[in-house]
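Render this sequence as a predicted structure.
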Amino acid sequence: MQTSGQNQGGRLGSWKEIAAFFGTDESTVRRWERDRNLPVHRVPGGAGAKVFAYTDELTRWLRKPADEAATPSPLADPERPAQPLADTPDQRIAWQRGWLAAIVLGGLVLSAAIAWFVIAPLPGQAPIRAIAVLPLHNVTGDASQDYLAQGMTDELITELARISSLRIVSHTSVQQYANTSKSLPAIAAELDVDAIVEGSVSRTANGIRVNVQLLDARRDRHIWADIIDRDMGDAATMQQELAQQIAAQIGVALTPFEKQYFAGRHAVSPESFEAYLQGRYYWNKRTPDGLAKAESYFKSSITADTANPLAYAGLADTYLLENLYSSTADSTTLDKARAAAARALALDGDLAEAHCSMAYVLFLKDWNFAGADSEFRRALARNPSFATAHQWYAELLSVMAKHDAAIAEARRAEELDPFSMIIHHEAGQILQNARHYPEAIAEYAKAETIAPAFPQPHDGAAMAWRRLGAYDKAIAELRIAAKLDYRFFGPDAVERIAQAYARGGARGFLEETLAERRFYPHPAYLTALDHAALGQTDATFAALEAARRDHDLDVLSVLSSPELDRLRADPRYAELVRNLGLSPSH
């Protein structure tokens, strides 16, 4: 541990210096004094209640087991460090624990037996198995370093998520707590977790310092804390070290595969890792401009270290999102994603993110459903808390009409990322494919609440209401979607559909909807559904074949769309399904 050079003799003379020692803010250390008995002293008699602390006391407190840290500390002489008293059995035990903590100061972790004793659950209370990592604070004083704190947060989440016996909340859902005033128990209740990790990131002369603490949110109880300094080149492995320490502190045993994974990680060049963190920072924005910057940073990371698998995985993820969200995507975007994922896997065959990227390419680009299924399974075996992998795997299973399994995967994604708009939206799509329309509409509503400006849930809800025969409600959802995004039916088109419904009922709605499809993105498959609903069989199959030929991804719902039920005995339907690579038995 390093201390500020201005504090001679290990004496810190203010809240500001104490906070700087821990790499956190003043409000946090004041709370630690109040709730965790942080050893802070006050000068007697002064009206300003001046405080001071000794670095060796703070170090011992940091390493103390949680139960001891919660016990009132003995009064100390304000001019010299307090010494442990050993006049009673309890005090002797505390004194012995303090010496044990000092021994492990060099970076060793308390033995599993002691760690288990410290955090043993209360009678009737389950052990800690669900954790949220709150955004680490940027305490550099430089807002341009926000990427560093966010990147290190994401890396710690990723490394913890590799531990199969833990459930780790994803980035999207914890990011909203970056500047919250909510209490830790309240946050834990909202995220349905047992424990919280919080802390900060700062620069040192040679690299980076990460300060973390682990708290049992159910009892608002400090479990463990540590401060780790690393050169930037070693920062890539720092979060793996922290993940293992956290697992040890809560009594989680790593599987042989997990031990092998953590033991096999290697440092990357400082320039490469820093560029990688900047890439992830912009990738998380999920905007066209953010993705363009992310692509540039990931390429810079690769240039700095061509053996950095994380950079290739990040580049593959960027191409995948560009394919979904960016107007600059073209027919080569998914091929570039495939090449980047393949290179990442060649460098690190256990990298879950690269397996997931490869799976999505096989799914979206190749329509190779068996290959995609295998790659998704590999990704989830290596990172069981990978919410996006669960979401995309649910989409694949839904396409294959494995509805129960698809819904289970979608629910798992929601558990891991409860405040993700896209995960709730896709859960709605999956439930709609399973013909659970009311539940689908409820999921769309959740997505709308999280992201009111996002039009897709309204479009999805409109289809669900249409299939329930509630055309007036479908029109209401179409109106909202039209106001948010003209890529769907424009406002004028929706009004023409509403007028046609008023004149001709359901048939009028369907006929006008079909007429307006020319302005809709990827209209072929939805045009086929309109023809099918109107009983126009030949036109339906012509549109279905056009959708397959145009690689319209919507056509992959062919096994589930109720409009096609009356056509499934037609030989043309079985031929279409075979040509798509799906099983005609469905």
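Summary. The first strand starts at residue 11 and ends at 12. Confidence is low (pLDDT under 50) at residues 1-9, 66-120.
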